[in-house]
Write a structure and sequence with these properties.
649 residues, alpha+beta, Ribosomal Protein S5, domain 2, Rossmann fold, nine-stranded mixed β-sheet, five-stranded mixed β-sheet, 20 helices, globular, disordered C terminus, binds 3-[3-(1H-pyrrolo[2,3-b]pyridin-5-yl)phenyl]propanoic acid
């Protein structure tokens, strides 16, 4: 090859590569969801998924994730190492291809349960493209191979930089997320640890370590008991009725693993996974499980004469789910993901696979453990009785509503237009803040529902008591989408449900109570992204005629810094620029209607936090920990998280 020819080929290759990388950098959200903290952390998941794939294929037992002092992240595994031989089509090291070509992973038929659809499985090349720089080191075939990149572009060919330790294989990727792409580039130990804990439960052969070199935090996750330990962890704050029931089996190349237990609680918590991805919206695997559960328990109850005939109780699926905590994990070769957030499994064949396995294994279990069987059936009968009481309570509400002139609660100040998509309701703590909100709002599309004091803690109450509570009744009627089994998010009268509470301890308690209620009884509102938390400012800074609001301490510092500069370093003994008055809002009620509108309600200028169920398991645990009966876990949680002002769900 002449120098010129080589130059030409190199250029053609490069153009192809640059086009791919450019596409990712131009529309990062298409590949990783968004460019917020969530998308940022997704980069780590993307690399770790590959390490877990190696574990599923039986070649890897270790994943180490480290936040480095410079803010970059290293993911290291003991898998086979990314292949390094020369790729026949691309004529360069396979390592370079995997790291730089979109979806190149698929070209190396790895024959594992690869993840496709959803947001996962886009490949390490996407992480590379979105990194200011990236370095990869592969231990394979006795050598250490190395390459580095800037914004996805290789800085030199793959080279051997040394000999691997005897028998050592694996991959070590270090990357610095690109600040030009991400709104924030700060990785959070807790966020990473939460996902790694989940992965370690789901993959019991892997040890996962998370380390933050900057903050000095470190945690190791290794759960030999897998899903059994996961269920115990999720259910830690409840009183379980028996040891977890564990079911494992495989049919049609689809491995199924399930662990579940019942507690004396009223809510259920079923977490389902496909190829390690949390299927928040459920799907065929979940349907298969529920169907088998209801049928098997009903058959068992009938056969052993456990249902009291005289009571005329028929046990339904709902009854078998009350107090149930379960984790379902299936591996599917070609998963189809559907639904709003692409987290619903669509493969129809999976339903019967799960149904058959659960049917067989659960019947066996019940034959061998009749005492547990009896306990569960008795628990479900109590659930059926409560369900009947709840139906009566619901009927009562419905009849009352029918008599109400508008069917709407009296204290609701409704909006004037009638188009749910553009309407929002502010659920406001207290009558006085409610009053300001009513005056300050844009009444065309903003409705206000003031709530008096604390609402009922639904975590501790039976459903019929929940439905008798006045504040809760007002919310159900205002939202207009029903409740529980009859809940239909499509009927919601508002596109945004915004919780507005004071920025103090009471306010955060009320917010948690409201979120718990919505999470337990109107969960799809959260799934559809309709629930928000308003962000009222904590401070007002006044300098002459200029008034600026600051939402937290760090923002206050920024505002003061700016004023310090503009006032040419005239500061008082506390470092505060002269002539500046800082007032701290103790509650929403201290703001006048105009201020409330300007800072918290005007869609043009406000910030609202969307509530999501990224980690439904964690959310459920937080609710149960904060709102449930057990005191010790609550104390531990509060001690551990006391430094965080907000509940991050
Ligand atoms: C392509 C093919 C094979 C493994 C990998 C990629 C791989 C990627 C990453 C990313 C982080 N850790 C990784 N480990 C492996 C198959 C390897 C083979 O067939 O030997």
């Amino acid at each position: 090859m002449t120098k010129q020819q080589a130059q030409k080929e190199y250029t053609a290759d490069n153009i192809k590569l640059l086009k791919g990388l450019e596409a990712v950098r131009k529309r990062p959200a298409m590949y990783i969801g968004d460019v917020s903290s969530r998308g940022l952390h997704h980069l780590i998941n993307e690399v770790v998924d590959n390490s877990i794939d190696e574990a599923l294929a039986g070649y890897n037992d270790t994943v180490n994730v480290t936040i480095n002092k410079d803010g970059s992240v290293t993911v290291e595994d003991h898998g086979r190492g990314i292949p390094v031989d020369i790729h026949p089509e691309e004529k360069k090291s396979a390592l370079e291809v995997v790291m730089t070509v979109l979806h190149a992973g698929g070209k190396f038929d790895k024959n594992t349960y690869k993840v496709s659809g959803g947001l996962h499985g886009v490949g390490v090349s996407v992480v590379n493209a979105l990194s200011e720089w990236m370095k990869v080191e592969v231990n394979r075939e006795g050598n250490v191979y190395y390459q580095e990149y800037k914004k996805g572009v290789p800085q030199a060919a793959v080279k051997i930089i040394g000999k691997a330790k005897k028998g050592k294989t694996g991959t070590r990727v270090t990357f610095m997320p690109d600040a030009e792409i991400f709104r924030t580039t700060k990785f959070k130990f807790e966020t990473i640890a939460e996902r790694m804990r989940e992965l370690a439960y789901l993959n019991k052969t892997v040890t996962i370590r998370v380390k933050d070199e900057e903050e000095g935090e470190e945690e190791e996750f290794r759960f030999k008991g897998g899903l059994i330990e996961f269920v115990k962890y999720l259910d830690e704050t409840r009183n379980s009725l028996h040891k977890p029931i564990y079911i494992e089996g495989e049919k049609e190349n689809t491995p199924v693993e399930i662990a579940f237990e019942y507690s004396d609680a009223y809510s259920d918590n079923i977490c389902s996974y496909v190829n390690n991805i949390n299927t928040h919206e459920g799907g065929t695997h979940l349907v298969g499980f529920r169907t088998a559960l209801t049928r098997t328990f009903n058959n068992y109850a009938a056969k052993n004469k456990l249902v009291k005939e005289n009571k005329k109780i028929t046990l339904t699926g709902d009854d078998f789910r009350e107090g149930l905590t379960a984790v379902i994990s299936v591996k599917v070769m070609e998963p189809q993901f559907e639904g709003q957030t692409k987290t619903k499994l669509g493969n129809s064949e999976v339903k019967s696979v799960v149904e058959t396995i659960v049917g067989e294994k659960l019947s066996e279990y019940l034959e061998e453990n009749p005492a547990v069987g009896k306990k569960i059936i008795e628990k479900c009968m109590r659930a059926a009785e409560a369900r009947e009481a709840a139906r009566k309570a619901r009927d009562l509400i419905r009849r009352k509503n029918a008599l109400d002139s508008m069917h709407l609660p009296g204290k609701l100040a409704d909006c004037s237009i009638n188009d749910p998509e553009h309407c929002e309701i502010y659920i406001v703590e207290g009558d006085s803040a409610g009053g300001s909100a009513k005056q300050g709002r844009d009444r065309r599309f903003q409705a206000i529902l003031p709530l008096r004091g604390k609402i009922l803690n639904v975590e501790k109450a039976k459903i019929n008591k929940v439905l008798e509570n006045n504040e809760i009744k007002a919310m159900i009627a205002a939202i207009g989408a029903g409740i529980g089994a009859e809940f239909d998010p499509e009927k919601s009268r508002y596109g945004k449900i915004i919780i507005m509470t004071d920025a103090d301890v009471d306010g955060s308690h009320i917010r948690t109570l409201l979120l718990t209620f919505i999470y337990r009884h109107m969960k799809d509102l959260i799934n559809q992204g309709k629930v928000y938390i308003a962000q009222p400012p904590l401070y007002k800074v006044k300098k002459g005629r200029e008034e600026v609001y600051a939402f937290d301490d760090s923002e206050l510092e920024k505002v003061l810094e700016r004023m310090r500069k503009s006032s040419k370093a005239e500061v008082d003994e506390e470092g505060k620029p002269k002539g500046v008055v800082i007032s701290r809002y103790k509650g929403l009620g201290e703001m006048n209607p105009e201020q409330l509108w300007e800072t918290t309600m005007n869609p043009e200028t406000r910030t609202v936090l969307q509530v999501n169920l990224e980690s439904a398991a964690a959310a459920d645990k937080i609710f149960e920990t904060l709102m449930g009966d057990a005191v010790e876990p609550r104390r531990e949680f509060i001690e551990k998280h006391a430094k965080y002002a907000n509940l991050d769900i």
